[in-house]
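Structure ticket #2291
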Amino acid sequence: MTTPLLTRRQVLAVVAALIPEFAFAKALDKRRLSLVLAPSNLGLRPEMNGDEPGTWRAPEVLMAAGLRVRLGADKVVALNRPSYEVHEQPGTRIRNGLAIRRFSLELGQTVSTAIRQGLFPIVIGGDCSVLLGCLYGARTSGGRGLVHIDGHSDFFHPDNYDTRGALGAAAGMDLALATGRGESLLTEWPEVEGPLSRDEDTIQIGERNALDANFSYGEIARTKITRLIVQDVLRNGVPATAQMALKRIDRRGLDRAWMFVDLDVLDQNVMPAVDSPGRPGLDLDQLSSLMGALLESRRFLGACITIYDPARDPKTEYAGRIVATLGDAFDHMK
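Resolution: structure written out below.
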């Protein structure tokens, strides 16, 4: 009996299963997206009135505003909301540190699965601490490198911040933790050698307080992290900024990097519905153009979007603007 030939679709499926890089390349070519909903507020301090931060609702509100349709996502994976605790957890001086570890491992597995299935995961947080799980999943899938687009460097850690008097908030430490600074609970991960992202492979875009004499910015400036502060972005323009970032990416050979976006990189006049609004910052078109130029390079295997707070947007008027902005950015992957 003659053995029937495999169809082209079957051949591609076999190759993709055996060679994750092949699946990754096809995901970019076909723009097959997986939305991962990560409703975490674990990395933030309680509100002044004692309430939990509202960023955990961002995924559901953005989905209701049409995010899946606008992105044309092939798949949606919704993680359960982790339990937020106000009080200290044993063995850590980071608020919700144990819960962040557990959630990061779960998120990392979800991200890794999406990548190995040939999908481009877009993680919708939640607060900035979801970066750790995203990078963990990327690293265990062969990824390397980080572009951190954020109005703050998020570089607090025990060497520059006293956590003895008050619990540390991981959302203000995410870049420090990602580059290996801070408690081992959130800097050491199974199957990953060294930090989730080495300084040389990390690009921070958008810090707004670097020129403020009253703000402690000095330590990150003494690292090998590439820094493009928002004042320079606004002066030089988005196209030039994207090219500078891409040149660094090429120089480091980063063809499977991760993109992180904290929406507080937007000017507070444009986007006040974030955990920590401020200025100066980008406008919506500048953010979508910056993300789009980077995504168009095909150097990324996934992205995460964080810190939109529906509690600060009771009429959800900003949710639609965020959806439109992300849609314009990810259209560059077509």
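Closing remark: The longest helix spans residues 97-116.
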